[in-house]
Design goal:
The structure holds two protein chains of two kinds.
Chain A (H helix, E strand, L loop, with lengths): L2 H31 L7 H19 L2 H25 L4 H24 L14 E2 L10 H5 E2 L1 H19 L1 H11 L1 H6 L4 H28 L10 H11 L4 H20 L9 H19 L17
Antiparallel strand pairs in A: 1-2
Chain B lengths: L1 H21 L35 E5 L8 H15 L6 E3 L7 H10 L4 E5 L4 H7 L7 E4 L12 E6 L2 H12 L4 E6 L4 H17 L4 E6 L6 H12 L5 E5 L4 H11 L2 E6 L10 E7 L1 H14 L6 E4 L6 E3 L5 H4 L1 H16 L5
Parallel strand pairs in B: 1-2, 1-3, 3-4, 4-5, 5-11, 6-7, 6-8, 8-9, 9-10
Antiparallel strand pairs in B: 10-12
The chains are: A mainly alpha, B alpha/beta.
Chain lengths: ~300, ~350
C-alpha cells in the first residue's frame, strides 16, 4: 500500500472518529460560554447512543432515531439546568450524577426493551455520501468528501457556532452571562433563561454525537460504548481555548493520534500495544504544552447565579 | 426545602444507576433486571441420576456485561441453562466486576451459601484464592485452564484449551488472499492463550499462509477495534477473527464493511454481521460447567484443572448458517480436521 493511500486513510479515519467528540465538545463549549460546566457529557452521550438505536429500530429511520436521541438529550439538559440554574446545585456533583445515571439508564432501558439480545440497525444506518467532483481530488478527496452526512454536519456546525457566539447579539448575551452574570442581569438579560437555553441546546449536540457513534459508526448499542469520549470532549474544550475552531483542531488532533494508533498494528510496527494505546493522549499533551498559549476560561463558569 | 429536594433527586439518580450497574447481586438474585426469558421449571427438581439438586445455588462473576455477545454472554447463557435444566433458583450474577470489588462479591455469594461460584476469566484467580479458604463449604471455579488455580482445596480451574487452534484453522481454510489476522482485546492470560494458538492452527491447514496477530488495547471501545481491523482489510487481509468482549463487534463490522470474512468467537456471532461471519468458534462452557456442577452435587469435586481440548469438545464450531454451501472447501477442511481429531492423528 502506498503512502498516499495510507495518508488518505488516516485522514478519513481521523474525521470519522473526531465527529462524536467534536459534537460533544461544541455542546460543552456553548454551555461553558454561558457559565456552566457539565461533567455529565459522557452520561448524556451514552443515553443518546441507546435512544438513537431504539428510535431507529422502531421508526426504521436513522434520522428520526437521531431526533429522538436529541429530544432525550434536551430533556436531560432541562433537568441539568433545573438542578444547577434554578436550584443552584453544584454543577460538578450534578455532572457526576449524570454520568452514573447515564451508564445505568442506558443499560437498564436497553435490557427492558431488548433483553439480552443483540439488535442491529444496519439496514437503516447512515450511509456514505459522496460530493461529486470534489471527491476526486487526490489524497484528501476521498477522506473529506466521501463521508457520512453527520460528519459534514458536525464540521459545518463549527463556523455556525463560531458565528453565533462572536457575531450575533444573542451570542454576545450568552457570553456575557458566562463572564459576568450580575452585569448581564442589570442590563436586562435574563440570565436564567439564557443558561437554560444554552444547556438544552448544548446537551442536544452532545446527544447528537452519541447518536452518531451508535447509529453511524457501529450500527448497534453496546454498554459503555462511549468509552470516555465525553471526557475527551471536556478536555478538548479547554485545549481548544473555548473557541469553536480551537475545539475542532483539538478533537482532530486527538482523533489523528487515535487513527495512527489504530493503523500501527496492521503495518507491522514493533511498538508494544500498551504504548500504542497511549499515542493519542501523549500527542495531545505534547502539542498543547508546546503550542497552546494561555487559556482563559469564562469568568463565571461553574458558579451558580442568584438573581437580585 | 430546595436543598432537601436536590438531595432526594440525586439519591434517586444514584440508586437508579446503581441498580443498573450491579445487575443481580448476591443477596437478591430475584431483583435482577432480567434473569433469562424462562423461569426454571419446578416440576422436575430431581434432575437425574438420583442426585438431589434442590437447594443448590449457582453464582457467577463477570468482568464485562452479560450481553456482550461473546465471552461473558457465554458464561451467563451456559449457567442460566444449567439452572433451568436442574430446576435451581435463577442464576445470581454480577457484571462488570472491577478488580477492587472482586473479593467483596465473592464473599457475599459465599456467605449466602452459594454452592458453585464461578469467576469467569483469569483475572479472578487471585481474588478467589484469597477468599476460598474462608468458605470451605462453597466450591469456587475459575474459567481459566492455566497454572495457579489449584492451591486451595475448594478451587478448580476449568476451560477449553487450543480453541485458538480451531479458529486459526477455520480462518485459513476460508482465506483466498492467504492473509489472515487474529486480534485480541488485551494481553491477558486467557486471551493470549488463544491468540498464540491461532498461527499453529492456520499453518496446520495451509503452511504457506500469512498470519498476523495483534492486540487492540481495549475490551470496550468497538469503534477503535473497527478502525484497527480496517487497517488490515485495506492491506488485503481477507479473514478477520477477534476475541475482545464488546470491542470484538467492531472487528465483525469492519469485515462486513470491507466485504471480507470474519470468524465469530465465544458465542455464535452470526447475527452481528450475517454477510461476514461464516462460522463461530464457540467455547463449550455449558458442557464444562455442567460436568463440574454434577461433580459438586455428587461430591466428587476435585481441586484440579479441568481442561478440555478440541478432542474433548471443549471448543466447537457453531452452525454455518448456510455458509458451508458457499464455502464447501472450508467446510470439508474442517470436517477433515475433526476426523483427524477423532482418529488421533491430530492431538489438540
Amino acid at each position: 500500500m502506498d503512502v498516499i493511500n495510507i495518508l488518505g486513510g488516516l485522514l478519513s479515519s481521523d474525521l470519522r472518529m473526531a465527529t462524536p467528540i467534536l459534537l460533544g465538545a461544541l455542546g460543552l463549549l456553548i454551555m461553558n460560554r454561558a457559565g456552566l460546566i457539565n461533567i455529565g457529557c459522557e452520561g448524556i452521550m451514552l443515553v443518546a447512543t441507546f435512544v438513537a438505536v431504539a428510535g431507529t429500530y422502531y421508526t426504521h429511520n436513522v434520522w428520526l432515531g437521531m431526533v429522538c436521541a436529541m429530544l432525550v438529550g434536551g430533556l436531560m439538559g432541562l433537568l441539568f439546568a433545573f438542578l444547577t440554574v434554578s436550584l443552584r446545585a453544584n454543577q460538578v456533583v450534578v455532572g457526576v450524577a449524570f454520568n452514573t445515571m447515564g451508564a445505568g439508564m442506558s443499560t437498564v432501558l436497553y435490557r427492558m426493551l431488548f433483553g439480552m439480545d443483540f439488535v442491529s440497525v444496519k439496514d437503516y444506518a447512515f450511509t456514505h455520501v459522496s460530493i461529486p467532483v470534489l471527491k476526486d481530488i487526490p489524497l484528501i478527496g476521498d477522506a473529506l468528501f466521501h463521508q457520512m452526512p453527520v460528519v459534514y454536519l458536525a464540521f459545518l456546525l463549527v463556523p455556525v457556532v463560531s458565528y453565533f457566539l462572536f457575531r450575533t447579539p444573542a451570542g454576545l448575551n450568552l457570553r456575557s452571562v458566562g463572564e459576568n452574570p450580575k452585569a448581564a442581569d442589570t442590563l436586562g438579560i435574563d440570565v436564567y433563561k439564557m443558561r437554560y437555553a444554552a444547556t438544552i441546546v448544548g446537551c442536544m449536540l452532545m446527544a447528537m454525537g452519541g447518536a452518531f457513534l451508535s447509529t453511524g459508526l457501529l450500527n448497534s448499542f453496546q454498554e459503555d460504548m462511549t468509552a470516555n469520549r465525553g471526557f475527551i470532549a471536556l478536555a478538548a474544550v479547554i485545549f481548544g481555548r473555548y473557541k469553536p475552531t480551537g475545539v475542532m483542531l483539538a478533537t482532530m488532533l486527538f482523533a489523528f493520534g487515535l487513527a495512527v494508533a489504530n493503523l500501527l498494528p496492521s503495518i507491522n510496527s514493533p511498538i508494544p500495544y500498551n504504548f500504542v494505546t497511549m499515542i493519542p493522549y501523549i500527542l495531545t499533551i505534547v502539542v498543547l504544552a508546546g503550542f497552546a498559549g494561555k487559556t482563559v476560561a469564562p469568568a463565571a463558569a461553574g458558579k451558580p447565579y442568584k438573581k437580585g | 426545602m430546595r436543598k432537601k429536594f436536590i438531595t432526594l433527586l440525586l439519591a434517586l439518580a444514584m440508586s437508579v444507576s446503581l441498580f443498573g450497574c450491579g445487575g443481580g447481586q448476591g443477596s437478591q438474585p430475584s431483583a435482577a433486571p432480567s434473569t433469562g426469558a424462562d423461569n426454571p421449571s419446578t416440576d422436575n427438581p430431581g434432575g437425574g441420576e438420583g442426585v438431589d439438586y434442590s437447594g443448590m445455588k449457582i453464582a457467577v462473576l463477570l468482568a464485562g456485561p452479560a450481553n456482550d455477545n461473546g465471552w461473558n454472554a457465554t458464561a451467563y447463557n451456559a449457567l442460566t441453562n444449567i439452572c433451568n435444566k436442574y430446576g435451581l433458583e435463577p442464576l445470581a450474577y454480577s457484571e462488570s466486576v472491577a478488580a477492587s470489588d472482586m473479593e467483596e462479591f465473592l464473599r457475599g455469594y459465599a456467605q449466602d451459601g452459594y454452592d458453585m461460584i464461578v469467576g469467569h476469566g483469569s483475572q479472578f484467580v487471585d481474588a478467589i484464592h484469597a477468599v476460598a479458604p474462608q468458605f470451605p463449604d462453597s466450591k469456587f471455579v475459575v474459567s481459566f485452564a492455566g497454572e495457579g488455580t489449584e492451591q486451595s482445596p475448594n478451587v478448580a480451574g476449568v476451560g477449553p484449551v487450543n480453541s485458538g487452534f480451531l479458529a486459526g484453522a477455520v480462518a485459513a481454510s476460508a482465506s483466498k488472499s492467504g492473509k489472515i489476522v487474529m486480534l485480541g482485546g488485551e494481553d491477558t492470560p486467557s486471551i493470549a492463550e488463544l491468540v498464540d494458538m491461532f498461527e499453529p492452527g492456520a499453518k496446520y491447514i495451509n503452511p504457506d499462509i500469512t498470519v498476523e496477530t495483534a492486540y487492540i488495547g481495549t475490551l470496550t471501545d468497538a469503534d477503535r477495534a473497527k478502525e484497527v481491523a480496517l487497517g488490515y482489510t485495506n492491506q488485503g487481509f481477507d479473514v478477520l477473527c477477534a476475541s475482545a468482549n464488546n470491542a470484538g463487534l467492531g472487528v465483525l463490522q469492519a469485515a462486513d464493511e470491507a466485504g471480507v470474512y470474519a470468524i465469530g468467537y465465544n458465542a455464535d456471532q452470526y447475527d452481528q454481521a450475517p454477510d461476514a461471519v461464516i462460522v463461530s468458534v464457540v467455547r463449550n462452557f455449558e458442557g464444562m460447567f455442567d460436568n463440574i456442577f454434577q461433580e459438586i452435587a455428587a461430591g466428587t469435586f476435585e481441586p484440579k484443572i479441568y481442561s478440555y481440548g478440541l478432542k474433548d469438545n471443549g471448543t466447537i464450531l457453531s452452525d454455518w448458517h448456510g455458509w458451508d454451501e458457499k464455502l464447501p472447501e472450508a467446510k470439508s477442511a474442517m470436517d477433515q480436521l475433526f476426523a483427524d481429531l477423532e482418529s488421533g492423528k491430530l492431538d489438540k
